[in-house]
Amino acid sequence: MTFSSSSAPPTFKPFNLALIQLGQIGPNKADNLKHARDIILKAAAGQGVAGTKPDLIVLPECFNSPYGHVHFPVYAETIGYTPDHQFDVTKCESESVKMLSSVAQEAGVWLLGGSIPERDITDDKIYNTCTVYSPKGDLVATHRKIHLFDIDIPGKITFKESETLTGGTTMNYFDTEFARIGLGICYDVRFPELAMTAARKGCQVVIYPGAFNMTTGPLHWELLQRARAVDNQIYFSMCSPARDTTAGYHAWGHSMVVDPMAVVIAEAGHEEEIVYARIDPATFHSARAGIPVTTQRRFDVYPDVSKGL
Ligand SMILES: O=C(O)CCC(=O)C(=O)O
Fold first, then answer.
1. Is residue 221 within 6 Å of ligand 1 at its C-beta?
2. So what family is this one in (predicted)?
3. What is the pLDDT of residues 176-231, one digit of tens each?
4. Ligand 1 atom at minimum distance from 187 CA
């Protein structure tokens, strides 16, 4: 769903979140999908916070293929859904979408299915796309990475997603019975307007699948998430793949959940791990009451980025 037609957000209720810092992402897509499916079921059946089942499970960026611009065209799948086209699971050709839809239904959880390389049905362009499923297995939202990861830090890391990918053109969210949740993917976190717009449009929680690296990860992964959380007084979370030093891309890991006071309330190391967090609206409300920036903004001095969508 895009923000242009958004209505009032759902009442924010406590819920349990699980991030899967997925490992064993190799060249065989079928193996990647099987492993993801098994660990989603494990997360759903797991102890969670205080022994409770998670309400929402999150996978990392590019969970079904190795990460790199050369791999995207090879692994890309047609979802048959764009913001302008209705999704029909019976006509869906994507093995990844079919797996995610069925496992969300089997586990009875909301599932934010990381991201996959997606080939558009109409123009053949390739996107880095997040798909989200309800506990009934319905595909309720997609988000195509808006800001492509094109960086060049000499001697450290050069990456150019735009070699094979196209950037998305819409800002997206989904509503559950417990919160409105804003979407983005990895490099999108460096553009504060996106999370700011999500927060202004009623998202109490914003979650981005990501895969930072060994150069920018130690510097910016936590900093950016805490910044987005405290700027907007929202819960902010990113879910990474586990680090695999035999792969071409070495992910930083450290999947984390940050509360609206910028406290890191859950964090993984760099290996495969399931991280659970209790999302508590009391922290959201007390942050906004105690430091009332949400009502002190000076839109007479600077514009509101969320206006005019
Ligand atoms: O912004 C960064 O430093 C890393 C971004 C990234 O890895 C990505 O967009 O996939």
1. no
2. Belongs to the carbon-nitrogen hydrolase superfamily. NIT1/NIT2 family.
3. 999 999 999 999 999 999 999 999 999 999 999 999 999 999 999 999 999 999 99
4. 9
Global ipTM: 0.98
Q: Whose CA is nearest to atom 9 of ligand 1?
A: 187
Question: What is the rounded distance in angstroms from the CA atom of residue 145 to the CA atom of residue 148?
Answer: 7
Mean pLDDT for 160-175 is 95
Atom of ligand 1 nearest to the CA of 216: 3
Q: What is the CATH number of domain 18-296?
A: 3.60.110.10
Cα dist from 235 to 53, 199, 262, 283, whole Å: 20, 10, 8, 9
CA dihedral of 122, 123, 124, 130, whole degrees rounded to 10: -70
Catalytic residue among 62, 77, 145, 161: 145
User: pTM to 2 decimals?
Assistant: 0.96
SS3 88: coil
Residue pair 127/166 in contact (Cβ under 8 Å)? The answer is yes
**H or E stretch including 173?**
strand 173-175
Domain positions in the chain are 18-296
CA distance 210 to 195: 15
